[in-house]
Design brief:
This protein is α+β, with helices and mostly antiparallel strands. Helix content is 23%, strand content 32%. It has 3 helices and 7 strands, in the order E-H-H-E-E-E-E-E-E-H. A 5-stranded antiparallel β-sheet has the order 1-4-5-6-3, covered by helices on one side. Strands 2-7 form a two-stranded antiparallel sheet.
Length: 141
């Protein structure tokens, strides 16, 4: 399993009238966490683009446990449990500074050739990079 954590603070414009982080913002937070994990292991967006690979989201499932608030420091843990084939799955946990679980989510993307827009197998450079990191307990910086 590959894991990583990022921290962020919700901005004022990301909360609703109740003072809670608006539910749709969690999708963006998880996307940011996924992007940062991949960047840390060397699979950054510009590399994927240069190799004509896109990763559109095909499913996103989220469970809200407790609300997050404006300027509250959040930790988002991202997990990759298995090597991807055509689909690439990620799991997320969002916690506050007390370690309370606020949200869990799962996201699946698919490898797509940017020229013909057809699904494709995970490219060899992605598989190789993931394999090198798969035995790591945690890649947090």
């Amino acid at each position: 399993m590959i894991t990583d954590e990022i921290q962020l603070r919700p901005r004022y414009g990301e909360v609703d009238q109740m003072g809670y982080v608006y539910h749709a913002n969690y999708v963006s937070y998880c996307h940011q966490a996924r992007t940062e994990l991949l960047r840390k292991i060397g699979i950054h967006d510009s590399l994927l683009e240069s190799k004509n690979v896109m990763l559109p989201v095909i499913s996103f499932e989220i469970n809200y446990k407790k609300p997050a608030h404006y300027d509250e420091l959040l930790t988002i843990k991202t997990k990759i449990r298995e090597m991807p084939e055509v689909r690439f799955s990620f799991e997320f946990e969002v916690r506050n500074t007390e370690g309370i679980l606020l949200t869990t989510a799962k996201s699946t993307v698919v490898f797509v050739d940017s020229k013909n827009r057809f699904p494709m197998s995970a490219p060899d450079f992605v598989r190789k990079t993931l394999k090198e990191h798969f035995e790591s307990i945690n890649i947090c910086s």
